[in-house]
Amino acid sequence: MWICPYCGGNHGLPFHDEQLDGVLCLSSDCGRFVEEDAVSDNTRDWDYMDL
Ligand SMILES: [Zn+2]
């Protein structure tokens, strides 16, 4: 289960596009976007280096 590192809430909306990869916290008093620093970030760096 996802847990917001800022408020500790567990209501998150996963969000992914070309530039952002993470979860949007749905707590009304938080609302932060928490980027996921997952293993996939390393492979993404390699893609940029190919360009
Ligand atoms: Zn939060």
Explain what this protein looks like in three dimensions:
The structure is a single chain. The chain is of the alpha+beta class and about 50 residues long. It has 1 helix and 3 strands. It has a 3-stranded antiparallel sheet with strand order 1-2-3, with no helix packed on it. A hairpin with a 7-residue loop joins β2 (about 20-25) and β3. The longest helix has 11 residues, at about 40-50. It starts with 11 loop residues before the first strand and ends with a helix. The mean pLDDT is about 80. The chain binds zinc ion. Zinc ion binds next to loops. The site of zinc ion has 8 residues, from loops.
What share of residues are in beta strands?
A: 25-35%
Total number of domains: 1
Major sheet summary line: 3 strands, antiparallel
Mean pLDDT level: 82
| Broad shape | globular
Helix count, per DSSP?
Answer: 1
Number of strands: 3
Query: What ranges have pLDDT less than 50 throughout 5 or more consecutive residues?
Result: none
The proportion of residues forming helix, as a percent range, comes to 10-25%
Helix-strand pattern: EEEH
Strand order of the largest sheet: 1-2-3
C-alpha Rg (nearest Å): 13 Å
Structural class: alpha+beta
